[in-house]
Every structure is written in structure tokens, then in C-alpha cells.
Amino acid sequence: MRFFKALLISLVVLSTSLSAAAESYLIKNATVYTSTAKGKVTNTDVLVENGKIVRVEQNIKATGDVVELDATGKFITPGLSNPSTNMGLVEIGAVSSTVDAATIEHNMGAGFNVSTAINFRSTILPQNRINGLTRAVVLPRSGDSIFAGQGSVIALHSSAKGLLNDNVAQFALYGSDGARKAGGSRAAAMQLLEQAINEAKYVRANPSRFYEGGNWQFSQSLNDLKALYPVLDRKVPLIIAADRMDDILRIVNLGKKHNIRIVIAGGGEAWLVAKELAAAKVPVIIDPINNIPEFDSLSVKFEGAGILYDAGVKVLLTGGGTHNAYLVRQSAGVAVAFGMPKTAAIEAMTINNADVFGIKNYGQIKAGMDADIVVWDGDPLELTSNPDLVLIQGEKQPLVSRATRLRDRYWDLIGNQKQGFVK
């Protein structure tokens, strides 16, 4: 009897979840930033069915069981993404038991894969989700190796189904941070990068000579060298953190020499070599708000992202760190204020991430895409604007986080002082 009761409950829950996932929406009369060649379109409707965008045009008529929403005076963008986070790997930075972003394990660098540590119940996910972020690239932090490891892509669902790809990039350091990992010199850091790539090529070309557990004299462990195969095959990019102009040029040359895909992260002085980056088709992950000169980036400036875009560089915007990764939207606003077109800034938070990291069916408002959609109550790059609706793969997301629950709980205690202590 208990078995049949449990089975019935399970079927009801499954039926409910399936019906929620299959809900259809018709969003009417919006201004839509499509992140396609169409750019911004006005007075446009978006129809969502079975988790997909099926039509984007004017005057769509609702048929069947469709939730119709009037978005007159409102804006639609694809769900935003941030390409440089530790989301799900860090809860409280000062509490080591809640931090899984790095390892100091000996001989674990390029082979370190963070996907098995991502916590989809983290309070950080809903806080970013209610602010319009629907996807994120989760990168490791560097441990003892110059290679930090492999990054993943997630959808900001509240369950483990949010893991979309467990290996979309390899992350490494150069500049002053890389120098520290290599004994104190950029020259040693570049030598380590070159040596690891050459060793990975050799091991891959001679697989029968090597086996796990052997005493091989390489700069990296055998597992780490094998983890570089997708980089050698151009299946994933090698993201290298660097800011100084000459550091960036050396990394570009490294990519050319070994025919690997390079992405620059940081890029404080990247604008100085924008033409070279564009010619080499090297994207740049940049936070336009980072405008404080350091020895690695003495020439950093607010206009950097716009200059890169004008030169033809694929720009990926980041900002806000991990806990507030949604503040990439603020970084985009700064980029626009200093010369970057608004449509380009939105593309730099959506489709550009999809292109660089191979995120399928995401990043544009057009037929066939997953329905990652945000309806904003005002201009999406204005700080005072907020989402009215967030869909992730067609599923409506609750606009609730720990922060909103605390706000509601303590909003007004007049005449009810015990409210904060009895629940």
C-alpha cells in the first residue's frame, strides 16, 4: 500500500513538473534586443512553446493554452551570462568548507575539473537568477600550477540538471600572477606553458609509450597533459589571464605557434593591441569597470571595451565577481557610456559567450533557440530596471532569493516585534 501511495505521489509530482516545463508564453508588444543581425526591434511579440522560442514577429495571435503577457513599454533580452565566475564553488569565501574552486594537490593542474563540485543549491544562484542571469561559465581558481583547470557551463536552474557542459575551456595564468606560479618570472611562466603544450603533443603522438602510474619526467602529470588534448584539437579554448600589452602579444603568438584557440582574460591593456587581437581572432573577457592602473595595466581605461569592439575583437563582458555576477549588466552600461554600442554590449553578455564556449541553442531571441528570456521593466542597462519575468529553457523562474525572503521577513516589524524570531 505504501509503495502504491508513494508511486502515485511521484506520478503527480512528475506530471506537475512536466506541465510546468511545457507551459507556453506569448509576450506582446516589447522592445526586443535580439542579439542577432536584426539588433533591436520594437513592438514585437515573442512566442514560446515547449521550452523553445518559436516565433519573433509582430501581431502574433494566441492559439491554444498560452499565457499571454503584455510587455508594452518593457524590454526583452536573452538571459544574460557571465563568462568568468566561481558560481556554485564558493558560498562564503572565509569558510574553507564552502570553497571548492581550487586545489593545492600536487600534480593537479590542467586535469582539475570543477564540475563535480558545483552546488546547484547554492544561495548565490537564485540571487543572480532573479537579476536576469540565466547562464554562467564556472572557472576554477589557480592552485599550485600555472594551469588552473577546466571550466564548465551551467544554466542557473535550482537542480543538478543545470550542468550543460563539464569542459568548455582550459584556464591558465600569465603576467605577474603566472610569474608567481613559475618561481617569479614571466619568462619561466611562458616556458612552462610552452613546455606543457609540447609535452602534451608528444604524449598524444606516442600513446603506447606511456601508462598511468609510470615515473615519467614531465613538467606536468600525465593526467594534466592528457587534459590539454581538447586544447590541441581546438575543441576548447585556452583562457589565459593577462593584462599587460606585451604579455597579450606573447600569448597571441603562442596561439599562432601551436594552432590553438586563445582567449584573453583581464585584458587591461588589450585595447592597445586591438588590431592584432582582431587579426588573430582572439576574444577578450573584460570588465570595463576595472579602471584602476596597476603595474600590469598602467594604460587601462573605461573606453577599452569599445575600442576592442570597433577593431573587430569579439568582446565578452564580465563583472561583479561571483556573488554578484549579475552586475555584468552594470559593466555593460559603463562600456556603453564610453563608446560601445548598446546592442554590442548585450551581445557581449549573451551570444558571444555562446560562440566562444560552444553553448548550444542559447544567446539570441530567434526561432529555434532555448527560451532563455528576460522581460525587463525598463532599459536593461539601467541600474533601476528589474526583471518582471525570467525563463530558463522555457521554465518560469521564481523571482525569490534568500535576500528577498529576508527583506520580506523584516520589512515591517511595527506592532509585531516577535516576527523575526518565531519563524
Short précis:
By secondary structure, the chain is α/β, with parallel strands linked by helices.
Please characterize this protein's 3D structure.
The structure is a single chain. The protein has two domains: 23-79 and 363-423, Urease, subunit C, domain 1, CATH 2.30.40.10; 81-358, Metal-dependent hydrolases (TIM Barrel, Alpha-Beta Barrel), CATH 3.20.20. Helix content is 30%, strand content 22%. By secondary structure, the chain is α/β, with parallel strands linked by helices. Strands 1, 2, 3, 4, 5, 14, 15 and 16 form an eight-stranded mixed sheet that branches. It has helices spanning 2-21, 124-129, 175-181, 186-205, 222-226, 229-232, 245-258, 274-280, 304-311, 328-337, 342-347, 351-357, 402-410, 419-422, and strands at residues 24-33, 40-49, 52-57, 66-70, 75-78, 80-85, 133-138, 147-155, 163-173, 238-242, 262-266, 284-286, 315-317, 373-376, 387-392, 395-396.
